[in-house]
Write a structure and sequence with these properties.
The complex is a heterodimer of chains A (283) and B (256). Chain A is mainly alpha-helical and 283 residues long. Chain A is built from eleven helices and no strands. Chain B has eight helices and ten strands. In chain B, the strands form two sheets. Chain B has a six-stranded mixed β-sheet, sandwiched between helices. In chain B, strands 2-1-4-5 form a four-stranded antiparallel β-sheet, covered by helices on one side. The chains are: A mainly alpha (283), B alpha/beta (256). Chains A and B meet through helix 1, helix 8 and helix 9 of A and strand 6, helix 4 and helix 5 of B. Chain B: GO terms for molecular function: ATP binding; ATP hydrolysis activity.
Chain lengths: 283, 256
């Protein structure tokens, strides 16, 4: 306290100051830019060396095409419109599977979270299924549904289901009992208890589940498309591999990476918006 | 007119290490509009007594009546302030006060605005709990209870976690609220000065088992000054009670 004279300052003046840890925003921005630039140094050096190595024929073009080469391949593919089609198909698959699996996971997680009876009935079975690796059920899905869209959607749905199921269940069960006591003293109705207490308190976990589910859906998409398909980014990759068109393989991999990162950032953006009340959230 | 009547209240906890006799033979009558402070060593059953009055704990023998009606559970006419503010972190200050009521309701809106003024939090309506200091958060909790027009406000060491400056400020805020609303207050503390500063009557409790040892009426006029002679006299009166029971623990904790 900056009270050098030892005088009693009216406490209300000290007291009504919010404890926001606010730095002036100007130096913060400069620092952010700094960090960004520093992060770029390494990749640029690597790309430069890589380009040089290809240019001087140290590395074979079929094994590791030069970055510039990959870029022109990307432009070619984009111009024919082929690339756009493949990306669209892949996105639809991922989204479809994610919506089916994710919404089921969320609903089941909430049901199991809210009711002990439902938990006792469903959770043991679901936990057992959860331990089965997604990749291990691929042969089964192929046997049942062939190589068609159905087996792909189901595979992605299975992958997206569990992160949301587990995390929304956990979120509902970890509501602070002290706040429950408050809700009782304030005579919350069951409905208000759910909307004002349980769901907001479970939201951080649910959003985490959402992010993990998106990631899992994306991984499953790659696996599903590589196991056999006639369109999609995975097909593009497999097809190019057969003809040793390594630069196209690279384009496919980069597209998978970019969209994976984009979907993750999208959910993070929502987290930042919805969880701004959180103490620990330093988004 | 008596608001609260407690007769032959007895309370035991069954635990793994046997039986704890938390409250024994409590008799207490509190008038409407009274300010009661309860003081006593830690573990003497102050919180237990408050929770029983609030209806949060209803497993006891004897009777606890508010307005001639037996307390059978928690309700909004018995406001409860915990030691921690216990705000909903996802709500702003105004929404925390309104809680299950809608701020779109004109009556609620108006009352919430009045209460924000009463607890001196103008300018912080839209702040989240993480942006508040401990004292501010506790004032939000008090406003939240007051919005429901409680017959009695039960406060369990509400300022115990605050620093000395903030605490004496909060005592004044609470005193002003009481002067304005005349809500009956039952206030648990382990700070002797705090107890004397606020109370019509100070109830001194004793531990193992928890009993009411003495009730001291503080009949000096408000607002009181802690440096006054009469204040010091009451202080000695209370301290004497603790000397009788050799409970140095309390005196230690009060920092005297
Ligand atoms: N939920 C409980 N289960 C078992 N024993 C308890 C419980 N709550 C309080 N007690 C016991 O009852 C006695 C009174 O506790 P409490 O009312 O919290 O005291 P105070 O608030 O005066 O410090 C203590 O001995 C404590 O250990
Ligand atoms: Mg206590």
């Amino acid at each position: 306290m900056d009270n050098k004279a030892g005088v009693l300052v009216p406490t209300s003046m000290n007291e009504n100051r919010p404890i926001k840890k606010s730095m002036s925003s100007q130096p913060k921005k400069v620092k952010k830019l700094d960090v960004f630039v520093r992060g770029l140094i390494f990749p640029i050096i690597v790309l430069g060396l890589w380009e040089l190595a290809g240019y001087t024929d140290i590395i074979s073009e079929t094994l590791l095409p030069r970055p510039s080469n990959i870029f022109t391949t990307f432009l070619d593919l984009a111009q024919t419109g082929d690339l756009f089609n493949h990306v669209q198909i892949s996105l639809l698959r991922a989204l479809g599977g994610f919506l089916i699996g994710g919404s089921l996971g969320l609903i089941m997680g909430l049901l199991v979270g809210f009711s002990n009876k439902v938990e006792q009935t469903l959770d043991p079975t679901l936990q057992m299924i959860r331990t089965v690796p997604t990749l291990a059920v691929i042969p089964l899905f192929i046997l049942w549904f062939g190589f068609g869209e159905m087996s792909k959607l189901l595979l992605i749905a299975k992958a997206a289901f569990f992160p949301l199921y587990v995390n929304s269940f956990l979120g509902i069960r970890s509501v602070d009992t002290k706040l429950f006591e408050v809700a009782k003293v304030l005579e919350f109705s069951r409905w208000k208890q759910i909307t004002n207490l349980i769901l907001p308190s479970a939201l951080p976990n649910i959003l985490l589940g959402l992010r993990l589910a998106l990631g899992a859906a994306w991984l499953a998409l790659v696996a599903a498309e590589l196991m056999g398909s006639s369109e999609g980014v995975g097909y593009l990759i497999m097809d190019a591999r057969q003809f040793s068109q390594t630069s196209i393989v690279f384009v496919g991999i980069i597209i998978f990476a970019v969209f994976g990162k984009a979907s993750d950032s999208f959910v993070r953006y929502f987290e930042r918006k919805l969880l701004k009340w959180r103490d620990s959230f330093q988004g | 007119m008596s608001l609260l009547e407690i007769h032959d209240l007895d309370k035991s906890f069954h635990t793994n290490n046997g039986l704890t006799h938390a409250l024994k033979n409590i008799q207490l009558t509190i008038k409407n509009g009274e300010f009661i402070t309860i003081i006593g060593p830690s573990g003497c059953g102050k919180s237990t007594l408050l929770k029983i009055i609030a209806g949060i704990d209803i497993e006891h023998s004897g009777s606890v009546k508010i307005d001639q009606k037996e307390v059978i559970g928690p309700s909004i006419d018995k406001g409860f302030i915990f030691q921690e503010p216990r705000l909903f972190p996802w709500f702003t200050v105004e929404k925390n006060i309104a809680a299950n009521f809608s701020l779109n309701d004109i009556k609620v809106r108006k009352k919430v605005d009045e209460l924000i003024k009463l607890v001196r939090l103008e300018g912080f309506k839209k702040a989240y709990p993480k942006e508040l200091s401990g004292g501010m958060a506790q004032r939000v909790a008090i406003a939240r209870a007051l919005l429901r027009n409680p017959k009695v406000l039960l406060l369990d060491e509400p300022f115990g976690a605050l620093d000395a400056f903030t605490r004496s400020h909060m005592q004044e805020v609470l005193f002003d609220i009481w002067q304005e609303n005349r809500t009956t207050m039952i206030f648990v503390t382990h700070d002797i000065d705090e107890a004397i500063f606020l109370a019509n009557r100070v109830i001194i409790m004793n531990a193992r088992p928890g009993t009411v040892q003495k009730v001291i009426r503080i009949d000096s006029p408000y607002p009181r000054k802690k440096s006054n002679k009469s204040f010091q006299d009451f202080r000695h009166l209370v301290l004497n009670e603790f000397d009788k029971t050799d409970e140095l623990e309390l005196v230690d904790r009060a920092g005297i």
